[in-house]
Protein 1
Amino acid sequence: MAPTAVYLCCAFAIAGFFLASQSPLPVGWVFAGLVWAAIAIAGYPLLPRSGQRRFSFRIWLWAAIALYAAGFWFYLRLPTPSATDISRWADQGSGVLVGTISDRPRLQAQGQSFTLTAQTWSPNPSETALKLPPSQGLQGQVAVRLTAVAEGLQPGQTVVLEGELRSLQAPRNPAGFDRQRYLQRQSIFSEFRGQLLKEDNPPLWSLEPVRRRILAAFRQGLGSDQGSALAALSFGNGLARLPGTLPEDFLRCGLAHATAASGFQVALLLGLTLACCRSLSPRWQAAIGTLTLISFLGIAGSSASLLRAFLMGEVQLWALLRQRSPQTLPTLLLVATALLLWQPLWIEDLGFQFSFLATLGLVVSVQPITDRLDWLPPRLAVLIAVPLAATIWTLPLQLHAFGTLSPYAIPANVLVTPLLAILGIGGVWAGLLSLVWLPLGSVAAWLLGAPLWLLISIVSAIANLPGATWATGQIAMVVVLLCYLSYALLLTWPRLRRRWRSLAVALIAIVLLPGLAQAATQQEILFLSSDGPLAVVRDRGQVGLVCGASDRSLRWDLQPYLEQQGINQLDWVLQLSDRCTVQDQWPIRQIFSSQSLQPGQAIQWPNLKLQWLSRTPNLWQLSWQGEQWLWLFQRGSDRWSLRDLPPLPSQAWLWSESDRLPRGWLPSIQIKGWISGSTAPTSLQSSDASTRQPDGRTRHQAWRWTPNGSLQSAIAQTSRPGLL
């Protein structure tokens, strides 16, 4: 088979892996894969004549078969727990777990986390001797979170832990991070929370002392926070994480790639190595380059995106050794296909997806964009074309995964790319010097303090600009596919390039119009699961918020939903507690609280009426298209009786954060359905079963109510995302 045919089959196989990851069920790929293969075959006559001359129909047919087969390979490699997996013993109380640490421990806001390869599990701690017993046939990995930080832990070390083994929990809120799915794709089906009892001696050979020596040198020269920032920019998040609010600032500026060890760092490192070894023979250059890349891979970690960059660098060194010019696009396709054949689940890794698409954009789009910027100085044109090409190719995936856009991403990348190059190269040199002599590495890191300070200042300034992050709403996967199909047509169809402006307008309309249409018609109340009362009221483009939750809940429970729905401002907010600082995070047109209102006062909108009925107990009434809601936000409400309250509707829905209702309430009010903060109020538990349905509790999951009188779970029941 000709090389071009192999490259085409690789491209179709990558598409097959991706499409299979979006199929709801493994059985669904039997039919969905045939449909996609048929669409690919039917598209052959639409190819321009040059494309048909380059790829015969027979080659195109083989490529469609590769697409179909890749999907089956993806499903064959889906992990499932074995009969002896540690997850079989989950949810049976506390115990002692013995195992070997599989990855580098990471600091968390409340303790420390790492992955553990299980060896033994003893449910009764009192019967377990605190020594390191041999394996008893137990298999599987566990996601461990320690309540206290244990210094000195490293991969390969055997530890004894005491705590509780639990099953993985499904996400509680819509658009929330699906940790259960994320861990299951890594063959992890249970989690452990507890404390460290005993640790074995660390392994004799490990790169962990090297990592710690480099990090210690950086922190000694620049301080703890600045040193960690330099380590993250030089070696990626595998060595250290950005301190404080810097991760959020880099994300808001569209610079998340700066700390994701991938092609940027590998290209800088390999280019520097080859420049230093220019006087040596190609064989020595290839050997030193390979040793450098392997060392960097060992220090930074072996993520999917870094492995992709590493293999592409090795191909470039092989081409140097053979004195040939490497072809970047075929290399990218071959390397990506090889990695996915080895581990198909990497197609769901966002880091791998963004790395692949950004590299693809640089390969195929930088030169055309540079040609259109010929009125600028050549170096400036390239400096603009590189982030612009990467942004164009990663934007559809970004809108699908996060639903946000960084308007300042391109100018931010243009401004900081020289600084990132200086810090990347300088950080690697400082790390190398620290291995020779620690103070020497500290001095080298100190010399990088000025560019590091300038970079952080620029990023912080841009991140705090108005509109630094714009929520566009999460787009459907079918829209993502249409965008990339349009990109492919622009590259292969010369006639279409003349009308690229019309195509761009059409794509923008396809991306934005569905979300705008949904927002203009949607009517619902979403009760989010959080550490306090939290609900979003949506009425045909108007968005209100009832908030009594903490800042942590606003960040992890509310913000993902608002970004997914493309909500950038709130029309009104009912603030129930001083700990709810929502006004500091989103623009708000009107904000109401107990300080600004008096009992009996009502707030009127076109379709909604919100009235504060009573201060003690804290009771509100919402009227919406003939439906009535009673919101009770005070515990111990049974101290009051119905005589202490104003007249109430005869039928109503109930949202209660109290464990007991006012005396005499139920005989006079028909509760059509209820939402409770934890469990059903005692008086409701003894009522008729039809009154207590549906049984929704916001502490456990989110619930959605619509004016037609239905109360349903807000969490999708499908285990896999769909195209729509």
Note: Residues 127-135, 687-696, 717-722 have pLDDT under 50 and may be disordered.
Protein 2
Amino acid sequence: MAIQQTITMATLGRPFHLGMLYDIRSDKLIPNVTLWDPQTLADHTITYKQPYTGYEIITEDSLQDKAHALGVEASLKLSLLGGLMNISGSAKYAEDYQKTNREARLILKYSTTTHFQELTMKHLGKDNLDLHDKNNATHVVIGVLYGAEAFFIFDRTLSKGESKEEFSNSLKAIFDKSISENEGEANLNLTDQEKKYVNKLPCKLYEDFRLNKNPKNFEEAVKIYRQLSLRIGESAIPKKVLLYPLYLLDDNVTRIVREISSSLIDYSISTIENLRSLEVRALDLSENSIFTSLNYMREQLLNFTEQLSEMQRDLKEKIALYLPELRGNTSVEESVLF
């Protein structure tokens, strides 16, 4: 089925701006080419305030959960999976996966938006546009939502008898308490038991803010979190864009853009997820004490994990190779991936 409507899409840290051209088949920005000159763009741009700030606590680590947290929808998930895009900032969170099942993970997502800029297309019109040499672009950016996000990732090795659910619930309660306190508070008002629980809890941060340093532990993470709302004025970047099909501007533009079926998207993602899950389980098993005296079996397990990793790489490379063709060529069947 051909894509016919205007599309809202997550930027994933890519440098979009109004009037920029885009090829949705390869998910590539087309730099240094616009349909209108800077003055025309400025004369037809409307800016709306769109203030929002919120947080979310994420306990799952699958690609589907990461895509949801980043606002990635439809076949853009496959572009993310296949590495078609040069993502940056908070979007790099999508590439950070747990490497063992002996750890529990909890992610604190901070999200804020500031304003939305939009081109008034009905006034720009179709006059004096020649789209035939625009580097095979399929869409033009007519709207940009500005804001910023941050993902604080906490991993903890589980003690004997401790469940992931127990860890998540305990840390979530401490999160809710800590980040709801006054932004100006210098210290965390934690009980001795809570301090013991989060003591030396490491933190990784993927963010769109230009911070001087990243947090090393829970306490530093909360202090940085409390300051983020004060930094958004200088850190707002494009977070979502509105893409307008070029054929609506020029009837002679006949570039094929085909949607990818949801079944292929889901199957591709689940296949990669299952291979990754099996790889993690095999790596954990290879470190079991029983293999201390069974080194040859441990080597077989490690060889197996390498094969699983290679299978993931091969599938991702096939996605990167064939996805643009699937979107732009009706003669290519989806079965080419499997």
Note: The longest helix spans residues 295-328.
Protein 3
Amino acid sequence: MTLARTKDNLLESLVDSSNRVVALSGKWGTGKTHLWTEVQKASTDEAVKNAVSVSLFGANSISDLKLKIAQKLLPKIGDGGAISDSIKNGVTGIRKVLTSFHKGFSALDELALIATPLMMKGRFIVIDDIERKHEKLSIDEILGFIDDCVQNLDCRILIILNSDQLGDKKIWELFREKVIDQELRLETSPAEAFDIAVKRVPTDHAAELKNAVEACKVVNIRIIRKVIKVANRLLANRGLLAPRVVARVVPSTTILSAIHYKGLDDGPDFDFVLKFESTFMAMMAQEAKKEGKSDTPEAKARERWRLLLDAVGFKGADEFEALVVDFLKSGLIDAGAIGKIIDRYVAEGQALEAREKAHAFSDRVTWHPEVTDAQLVDELRALIPDAGMLDMSTVTSLHYQAGTIPGGAAVGDEIVQAWIAAFRAQHPPGQEPKLDPDFNFFHRQLHPDIETEINAVQARTQSTATIIEVCRRVAEDRAWGAREESLMRSITPAVYEAAILSTSGRELRLLLLQSMDFVKNRAMYEAHFGGGVQAFIDACQAIFAREPVSRIGRLVGTLFADAKMAALIAPAAVAATGAPAAAVAGAPGTP
């Protein structure tokens, strides 16, 4: 029975006076003790309200059990009253007899044991954790003690035990028939277990964690608390994250934590989860069926685990899952690395949200004539801050649609320029994206300004390697042809700068030293290379002006100072670099 139904049935069982011994069983950690606490609060029976609960954890004899009961009952009896006086008088008389034999019998524990039958008379006793008793104490001894309490002391007993961890099951079955009047088996649902756990361990992501816990069918409250703690630790100080981000991290956090804390009855291991990819696994399962290999125990297990991960909402692993596993194994969290990954998920979520807004706008322009032009312009303007998250085709489409709306053309232009500005910020000189020459494979129309920007990037990235080829041929062959002349005449300072910033090591040495040779022999090279030599000087001027104290800035300054041409890039180049002449290996001279 679920927690709610079991509570109602337990209350009814305790009202029935013929039920002298009631047993509440269920799996470990499913809320049996919690249920008893709730029942005790709700009961109108004074004996139930004043019941004492004892745990058999570690008890190795019936004397230990009696002592635990006595220790719980003594505070409830207090001073005065017939029961109290009877216990005191009885204990006093017995103590006189015992101490005449040995002084050790005056100890409190022995007296408590002597007084236990008097204190227990007519009491409601709860005995918990039977399966955690010491191995010296057998189940038949416990049940014999219970039978004695019921028959001779008029006690009522509630036994709470974890049925899945009980060792002496045959004896338990035998005595259940003779001693137990009513047995209730608690089968807490995952939702009920989560609701109990989250009261002790609050979280900002309760709804998502609850869904994942239900999908995993975890019913152990202690394990669920640990799962929540792991999620809270991983997402600490993040506040309320976007639903998409939470949906990305909570499923894997839940399943990995449940695996680690043994919360799954039949679950995969870490390795299966880390290598999981939803679509690929589904394809493999279909292939296995076709080949008749789906009936093996291993194939059946993999299919069960695949369905479990699909139910949780887990699609595939990346470095986040690897860090979660490392945290679970070591207890040490790499907060910086996890923070960067979460930031990336946030950015990806924002980009997806921006695309959805753009698509929604296009839909409203076409299919919602009830929306006014002014409203559409406002919606379009709201997309400007997110323009950099959209692809170039979408931006072009938005610009076209903006032109069809009165007052929208200017806003469309702003979106295009915002996209170009964001693109340049993401890809500064030397860090241009490597665009395939056929990147626009489907020949989608692009806004002219966007197309110009993309063509410039392609030219810079393609020219970078070509400039180095020119320098290598001139340095090695002391010759060049029409191809080299054409490239050098058309090269721009921006392209030259990008080439300098994007190379290093031998290629950078070749590029800079050979280009310096162009400058030193300017008259000869300009006759063939035209403005290429000046493009190199202008590129170095830009680098040195922007970052004179960076390593590349100091290198450029030193090269010109060494060649006694510092004035070409900055009058104070030598002072700014602080480098002596010939400070760079191989300069002056040619490679």
Note: DSSP finds 28 helices and five strands in the chain.
